[in-house]
TrEMBL record:
Entries under SUPFAM superfamilies matching the protein: F-box domain, RNI-like
Protein name: F-box domain-containing protein
Every F-box domain range: 7-52
InterPro entries tied to this protein: F-box-like_dom_sf, F-box_dom
């Protein structure tokens, strides 16, 4: 089959199948498809600009091109920029955001203090489903979010470059983002956002002053049908509140992740204390299906693969007959242990 026959064959495919093929191509191949035929051009161009992932190397050129071509700007549905070296281009990024009417996913990890580039009020041309940023939850961030009525997933920051926590002074109004289901934010922000919204998936962290178990009462005020179902918190806070307070805040919790970011996983006594806290939590939350513990290899005195977690896993399964999985992970590493238990059988390692 020569090139013309291949082009004709592709052009005659149903549009949904052709689109499914195009979204799996990398950028150079999509660019070639744009130049292949008039029939392929509009679909290939849609796929090429639908999902933009920028860096300091191409952000200036891409934003200038979008600003100059409204047709291209209308095609963008996802914009991802993860680069802390783009500070000189914040102005042109701001201009580009003002002309993206179909944007649905926006990820901006470009520093702590760039929230002023976010479109405010009626100037915002889009309604996001997902927004993730490294910005502080300040006045500009809060005002931008107040216009995002379709938002389902939100990730914000509250820790400055100096490591000090930024306490939010701007609280969302009750009508803001009524469809929010997933939240990644420090506990100080979680307290403001969860009440009155159907949030069921939360990843959070505590600060030095967050030792009051009542801080978690906000989770019980989620309007999700079954309340919060997935929750990730640091081990330091788990130690300060215990299983009873956690169960009171999230009585229907099914998936718990503990970020063990301050312990040595190779220290037997430390792991023994962790195991006792895990038992306490599982005894209070009997309906739990999965518990995940994430260790940090930089704190370990032994290679992570050589550490034996058998006692921790065994005691977890013994405490809760409904628990199906215990998962051990390591921050920054792909290696993990997935342990599964079936009624009437001993637990075993699996590839799930």
């Amino acid at each position: 089959m020569d090139t013309n026959e291949e082009t004709t064959f592709l052009s005659n495919l149903p549009l949904d199948i052709l689109d499914s093929i195009l979204i799996r191509l990398d950028l150079p191949d999509l660019a070639k498809c744009c130049r292949t035929s008039k029939a392929l051009y509009p679909l290939a161009k849609d796929a090429l600009y639908r999902d933009l992932r920028l860096s300091c190397n191409n952000v200036l050129k891409a934003c200038q091109k979008l600003t100059a071509d409204a047709d291209l700007a209308r095609r963008v549905q996802t914009l991802v920029l993860i680069d802390n070296t783009v500070q000189l281009h914040l102005g042109v990024i701001q201009d580009a955001l003002l002309i993206l009417p179909n944007l649905r996913t926006l990820v901006l990890a470009i520093g702590y203090f760039g929230s002023w580039i976010l479109p405010q009020g009626r100037k915002c041309p889009f309604q996001l489903h997902t927004f993730r940023c490294g910005f502080l939850y300040d006045a500009s961030t809060a005002m931008f979010l107040s216009s995002q009525l379709l938002l389902k997933s939100l990730a914000v920051n509250s820790v400055s470059s100096g490591g000090e926590e930024f306490r939010p002074t701007h609280h969302p109004c009750p009508a803001s983002y009524p469809n929010l289901t997933t939240l990644f934010a420090p506990l100080s922000v979680v307290q403001d956002i969860v009440p009155g919204r159907p949030v069921e998936n939360i990843t959070t962290s505590s600060s030095e002053g967050d030792v009051d178990p009542d801080l978690l009462t906000c989770l019980a005020r989620s309007t999700a049908p079954n309340g919060v179902q997935r929750f990730m918190i640091d081990y330091k806070y788990i130690r300060s509140i215990g299983g009873t307070a956690l169960a009171r805040a999230v009585p229907n919790l099914c998936y718990l992740s503990i970020d063990a970011n301050d312990i040595n996983p190779a220290h037997d006594k430390t792991i023994s204390v962790l195991t006792e806290y895990v038992e306490d939590i599982l005894s209070c939350l009997q309906q739990m299906k999965c518990i995940t513990i994430r260790f940090h290899p930089s704190l370990s005195t032994l290679p992570c693969r050589t550490i034996n977690f058998q006692d921790l896993v065994t005691r977890a399964f013994e405490t809760s007959p409904y628990l199906k999985y215990v998962i051990i992970t390591f921050f920054g590493l792909r290696a993990r242990y997935v342990c599964k238990s079936l009624p009437g059988f001993d637990w075993y390692l699996c590839a799930d």
